[in-house]
Amino acid sequence: MAMSLSILLRRCCMKNKQVLHRLLSTRQTSETTDNADIVIAGGGMVGASMACALAYSESFAEKRIVMLEAAPDRGEFQLPARYSNRTCALSPATVSLLSSFGAWQEIEQMRCQPVRRMQVWDACSESMIAFSKEDMTEPLAYIVENDVILGAIMRRLRSAPNPVEVRFKTSAKAFNIPYVAEAEQTSKHPWVGMDLGQGKSIRTRLLIGADGAKSAVRSAAKMHTMQWGYQQTAVVATLKLGEASENTVAWQRFLPTGPIALLPLSDEFSSLVWTTTPENAKNLLQVPEESFVDAINDAYWHERDKNELAGKALTAFSQLLSNVVPGGTAIRQLPPTVTGIVEKSRAAFPLELVHASHYVRPRVALIGDAAHRLHPLAGQGVNLGFGDVQCLVSVLEQAVAAGSDLGSLNHLLTYETERQRHNLPVLATIDGLQRLYSTDFTPFVLARSLGLTAVNSMTTLKNLIIQRATA
Fold it and tell me: pLDDT tens digits, residue range 316-362?
């Protein structure tokens, strides 16, 4: 009996030691493991705006937020004298988001150019549509350089009330993401793990992928992606105009090889986005400056692509419309003449469509180009990304208010549903327009010319299009 009691006491002591060892081990692990409530992978315009929006929201005052950015820290942004060749057309909705945390006010102190009118026309028939706000006081959009946008956001992020830890020259080398099959059991997998290399790692309740069209987050989460190339290349440059004037019109002409657009930067400069074939793009990058300028002016003025049948039908249709809708057609304006190019501003990049079938997984959400990338002909790409930010921040604020788990699919699916309902029609419309205008086949030229002219005569419809594009 004494022997049995001795053994029992010894076993009890050993068990207590094991329990104590586990407790100490658990405590040590929790103290040494790098944990965060939200990790944002990618510090570009959309990723940085996500971090900034969270940093200025009272809901996240007690949350730890980390942003991983592969590029080095550039320090305090200094506005360069020369305009950059990469620009965005920011919609009023995007301006509203940036204003909510002070970034738009920073941009206004640097530089931006309003677009008060947009004129679009077809090289095959000269059918045209023009957009403008009726009172001409509120711009359709603002043209802003990418570097200026990011610089303004980073300025605000550094002075945010809720500090965000920004890790430059850092990106995840591997991910440990909860299985999709256990989506309803996220409590069993409360973390997404990331290996940052050099023996460093981090865990988070919610991983936000803002790491671009080739998103490593999207790939690690095994999200199905619809993707195809357009076999087109966008040539960009900063152009000098012939005469200084009130430059507030965006000009876009559809050529059979793709649209060419001039976007206002200032009274003297405009930004070029010329979509063309890869072969022509290569040539445009190599020709002397004088030849490049001549090619741009020729693209806006030549009549080689005119379709005679479509032209005659359009003339008759326009006369009919003028009788039915008096004064319904907008006045055609002539585009400015380009006289020069800013040195070393020519560049090119291939165009493709990318869309993730899902924007969320357990503890994972995609925003910006990681979720969708589209053709630049309507200038809506970055605006969709900023719309993602606005929606996801709102959804997460509601989750915090309800005391919910930030990584739960219950609210992440709300974000996915809302954004896909908005984004998919935009992607489909732009892809359809690109295909419709990338041909000189007479039936297509006739159909699009009559349709464009009809829409141009309907003020109410044009206003609806503007509202949709600027929302």
Answer: 877 777 666 655 556 778 899 999 999 999 999 999 999 999 999 99
- Three-state SS for 435? helix
CA-nearest of 346, 380, 143 to 262 is 143
Residue-wise pLDDT for 419-444, tens only, equals: 999 999 999 989 888 888 888 889 88
Query: Residue 431: is it exposed, middle or buried by C-beta count within 10 angstroms (0-12/13-18/19+)?
Result: middle
Alpha helices per DSSP H over 307-441 = 308-324, 381-401, 409-437
CA distance 54 to 69: 17
The DSSP code for 183 is G
Residue of 66, 417, 113 lying closest to 271 (CA atoms): 113
Which pLDDT value is given to residue 31?
39
179 Cβ contact list (under 8 Å, min separation 6): 189, 362
d(CA 466, CA 456): 12
pTM listed for this prediction: 0.88
Query: How much of the chain is in helix, strand and coil states, percent to nearest 5?
Result: 45, 25, 30
Q: Which of 50, 48, 135, 149 is nearest to 90 (CA)?
A: 149
Task: Select from 453, 435, 449, 457 the least CA-distant residue to 310.
Answer: 449
User: What residue ranges in 49-145 does DSSP mark as E strands?
Assistant: 65-69, 87-90, 113-115, 117-122, 128-132, 141-145
Nearest of 92, 1, 90, 107 to residue 46 by alpha carbon: 90
Report the pLDDT averaged over residues 12-38.
49
Using CB atoms within 10 Å of the CB of residue 402, give its burial: 0 to 12 exposed, 13 to 18 middle, 19+ buried.
Answer: exposed
* CA-based end-to-end distance of the chain: 83
Q: How many CB atoms lie within 10 A of CB 159?
A: 10
